[in-house]
Amino acid sequence: MKKKSVDEYPYKFEYAYDNVYGHAVSLLSQFELPLQGVHLDIGCGWGAISDKLIELHNLHYIGIDADPDAVDHLQSEGKEAYHFKFTDCETNLAYIEKILDGRKLASITILDTLEHVLLLEDLIKTLSVLSKKYNAPLVISVPNFAHDDVVFKLLCNKFDETETGLLDETHINIFTEEKLTAICKKFGLHQVGQKDVILEKSDQYFPENLLTLAEKSTLRQFLISLRRNMSADGKVNQLVRMYIASHPGLKIENRNLKRPFLSIVTRTVGNRPEELKEVLLCLTGQECVDFEVLIVGHNLSVEKQLLVESIISATPEWIRSKIRLIRVNGGNRSTPLNVGFEKAEGHYITILDDDDIVFSNWVKEFKTLSEEHYGKILKSVSVRQEYETVETSFSKRSSRAVSGFIKDYPAEFDYIAMLHHNQCPGLCLAFPRSVFHDFGLRFDETINTIEDWDFIVRSAFLCGVASSPAITNIYRWWLKGNNSSQSLHNSQEWEDNYFYVQNKFNSQYLLMPPGSAKRISRLVSSRSGLNNYNEESINDVSIQRKRELAHQILISDSWNITKPLRLIKRLFGKRTDIPEIFNATERELDEFIINAQNSKSWRITSPLRNLRRKIL
């Protein structure tokens, strides 16, 4: 057989600072390698890194390759090189120990080789044994099968093999970051460094007129926006990672893991012990018990932590075994949600704050919906009920309902209305775990309010929503004294966050469900707004501000202090009309705000408001 010349050899690549060879040497340079040690380059090719390793680290270079022409070339340059085809681990180790002949192994590289070998696990095990025995760092590089160009072409049924590159026609194995990490963990290789090769456009970026590759096409931009959230290595051409070996057999995620149906994430700062007891009591009475509970304690003091732990300990053993307490320090309201969702193991994940109430059918309704709509967000119906805190003989701080059930929230999920304002408390929704764990959606930790609305809308346009008309829970609406988000954050912050989230929606591609086109067409034609939402324009946020102002009046100290005056008015047949904030027309809101702010009771309490402003 005629020997290949340098020009004929398909894998003759030069060393460069910003290619895979330069990145491999850079990773090894993080270690103080033994002087006069041996560097073992497996799948060495024509030895692109040999001169640089000798120059920088004074290492003795040994190359091993299955191609005799590559080995001959290295030997002609006076370098030590061997022709060998790797096989089972025992044979591999015996051969390498023979050529080392007692010399100290300092470091190992295997660059763009694993994709070509038949007995992959045997070779990985060989590398792990050598790394552990000699405490030698190991650098592995493999082509990334999950590059955007490959993924987007596969969507169009295109798989274009080439002589070299990401889809080299000689490849036997394909790699993504997940696969490389899993197989290395299996054999005890711990990643200690990373310097991937990034290419915006790989050798697979053809044909350029393909819609998934065409730079300005909406389809491509939508796909890129999806993958951006996934922590996907869409621009990584080659994964270049450095490892040190330790004990093998690290726990690998079991794909057949028996997951609970529902993970329930409950935020608490330890200030609502009585309400938290009620939450756990509600869960004890569930008709379906296929769930786990993650109580996420946010910035808990030791005293508050002990209090929460005592509440958990007081539950029956069968439900106590389902509860995990997770402590989180720092961040804002979104932080414990992100941590809870990250730790959740269920097929679906829901939010149940430490002051809400769920009925016995809550979990069961979600599970029933999932049987026909698995993969969609699952929605039941919440009712709102107004509460205030009271002191009783049993507790200094308990809660009391001061209204009946108020049906503010619609049975059907309305995608278009949700772009305008939130109609869904978090506890009426269950999210598929994939939207968080695979697609990378997160609660926005830059905002302190309406973080749930932001997450719900972004998730809904990916998953879709399956709705049930069943009422399954009570969303408590605190009028005073509970440190709720309504009272902890002023109206300006709510308004700023509202515009921020609206702008975020406006900057993203939205995948609309069937039926949306007719709805939008009707809105444009009639200029009437959102179905039964009182002809509000989608772009008109003034009514949203009025709803917030009306709410601030209702929870204010001034309103609560003057309650006896309104009771006296009622005795004389005069009644103060209080609208249902979420369903009120703009006219009803205007009338309430004007009447309230011009009332005698409001004027009487003006010194109180002035004093409060001075203090703040």
Please explain how this structure is put together:
The protein is α/β, with parallel strands linked by helices and 616 residues long. It has 25 helices and 17 strands. Strands 9, 10, 11, 12, 13, 14, 15, 16 and 17 form a nine-stranded mixed sheet that branches. Strands 1, 2, 3, 4, 5, 6, 7 and 8 form an eight-stranded mixed sheet that branches. The termini are far apart.
**Helical region count?**
25
- Compute the gyration radius: what is it? 32 Å
> Hey, roughly how much beta strand do the residues contain?
15-25%
Quaternary organisation of the protein chains: single chain
Number of E-state strands: 17
How would you state the average pLDDT, rounded?
A: 89
Spans of at least 5 consecutive residues whose pLDDT stays below 50 are: 528-539
Helix content: 25-40%
The main sheet comes to: 9 strands, mixed
Distance between the termini: 88 Å
- Global shape: elongated
- Class by alpha and beta content: alpha/beta
Question: Quick summary of this structure?
Answer:
With 616 residues, this protein is α/β, with parallel strands linked by helices. The chain has 25 helices and 17 strands.
